[in-house]
């Protein structure tokens, strides 16, 4: 009942909240990969078998940083969400497969990656909603 009272005015608050949470988290994770620790991140990718590491560091960093910005503001949300889904599907299957789910146990769990994947998948199907730059550019307010 409480949710029906809160969301009777505009049900598009939900994708806004999801977009902001996912977008800000992705920006936070992508920024150092592009601007602060490129060499370390590239080397780590090479140890995982993604060679050359310097090449793979760019799409990973851009997907998180630029994709996070696009998702947060709601511009080309489905395209950015698709890129994030693909990236986190690779992370889950190639890097985290067979590990414990909980990140608190050894810092290498997969539950946070699953949340990123599921959030991006939800936005891929749901869209950006009316509280987005996309909606404003197409329809105005």
Automatic annotation (TrEMBL):
Its chief place of residence is membrane
Subcellular location(s): the record lists:
Cell membrane
Q: Which UniProt keywords apply?
A: Cell membrane, Membrane, Transmembrane, Transmembrane helix
Bilayer topology term? Multi-pass membrane protein
Superkingdom assignment: Bacteria
| InterPro entries with a match to the protein in the record | DoxX, DoxX-like_oxidoreductase
- Report TM segments: 13-31, 114-133
Q: Which GO terms describe its cellular component?
A: plasma membrane
Q: Does the keyword Transmembrane helix apply?
A: yes
Family note: Belongs to the DoxX family.
> Any idea what this protein is called?
DoxX family protein
Whose protein is this, by species? Candidatus Sungbacteria bacterium RIFCSPLOWO2_12_FULL_41_11
């Amino acid at each position: 009942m409480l949710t029906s009272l809160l969301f009777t005015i505009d049900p598009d608050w939900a994708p806004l909240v999801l977009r902001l949470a996912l977008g800000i988290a992705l920006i936070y994770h992508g920024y150092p990969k592009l601007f602060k620790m490129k060499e370390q991140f590239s080397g780590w990718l090479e140890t995982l078998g993604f060679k050359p590491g310097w090449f793979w560091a760019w799409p990973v960093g851009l997907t998180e940083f630029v994709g996070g910005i696009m998702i947060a503001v709601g511009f080309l949300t489905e395209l950015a969400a698709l890129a994030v889904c693909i990236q986190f599907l690779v992370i889950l299957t190639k890097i985290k497969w067979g590990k414990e789910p909980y990140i608190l146990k050894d810092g290498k769990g997969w539950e946070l990656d699953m949340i990123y994947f599921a959030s991006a998948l939800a936005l891929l199907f749901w869209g950006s909603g009316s509280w987005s730059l996309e909606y404003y550019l197409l329809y105005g307010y």
